[in-house]
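Hey, quick one: can you model this chain's 3D structure?
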Amino acid sequence: MGYKILATLLANRLRVMLPSVIHEDQTCAIPGRTLMLYCGYRIWHEATAEQMNLILISLDQEKAFDRVN
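Sure thing. Here's the predicted structure for all 69 residues.
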């Protein structure tokens, strides 16, 4: 039982510093970072910079990734 308390304490302490340690391109396990929005923005930005025609399709990938509560 003590290991659960220790693991929770460590996770809460690390959660504060993770956004500064993990590169902004990495979105997994960082609250507030969503992969689809970031990728969509990057694609849109590159396409408009190159004056390309663009169609974006966003599909639900919720079941493609494991989740940990």
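One thing worth noting: Residues 2-62 form one domain.
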